[in-house]
Amino acid sequence: MLSKLKSKYKNSKIFKLIDKAENKIFQKKLTNHDFTLLTPNCMGGLIYHRLGEKFNSPTINISMPTHDFMAFINDLDYYLSNDIYETDNAGYPYPIGVIYGDSEHDDVRVNFVHYKTFEQGKEKWNKRKTRVNKDNLYIIICDLDDIYEADYDKAGFINDEDISLFEQAECNNKIMLTRDKNRKQSYAHYIEPMYNKPYPLTYMNRDILGLNGFEKHFDFVSFLNKR
């Protein structure tokens, strides 16, 4: 019953008016445009939509395993210049693509989590990858093995190898949202877990006022304004 009420409210005119007003507030603060934001989950798409900016990133409405994403951001020229192919979805309820590597590059997996078919996902990926602006590039990651893990105790943390790869990635600004207070990196941003909810929802779930979890704990507009 409660879930039905929440769904009804989020489709109501009141909620849409609140959401529209919030969009304007965030958009007014934004001074940097034509940026590319890369994320291994849906956060990038949420931010682009909130700010009303053109989708200058292929990592929208998709997810990528952490290590694959690190390989991707460290050699964009290679992965953006190569084609993406459909592969077995292994029982997942969405199509999966792969960009094959070579002797110097790993294979990179792309989960088209918000697409019904691989062809739809590939079309959007290929269209948006041509818009990547490496001179105005930003990267956001979440300190999780799997953003979609329902149990925060099982979500895990990014390992040292992938942290090192993240540090090597060249961009205007980068950040790692984490629940680990012991992360000392300058780009680590602590967000306290909500222990009554699956931890990933701290980042992604919208509250009654329409704010995504990360929007309440992370000033993403200031992050994108930094050149």
Give a structural overview.
The chain is α/β, with parallel strands linked by helices and 227 residues long. The chain is built from ten helices and seven strands. The protein has helices spanning 2-10, 13-29, 43-51, 66-74, 76-81, 118-129, 160-168, 200-204, 213-217, 220-225, and strands at residues 36-38, 85-87, 96-99, 108-111, 137-142, 173-178, 188-190. The strands form two sheets. The protein has a four-stranded parallel sheet, covered by helices on one side. Strands 2-3-4 form a three-stranded antiparallel sheet. It is globular and about 55 Å long. The protein starts with a helix and ends with a helix.
Question: TL;DR?
Answer:
The protein is α/β, with parallel strands linked by helices. Helix content is 38%, strand content 13%.
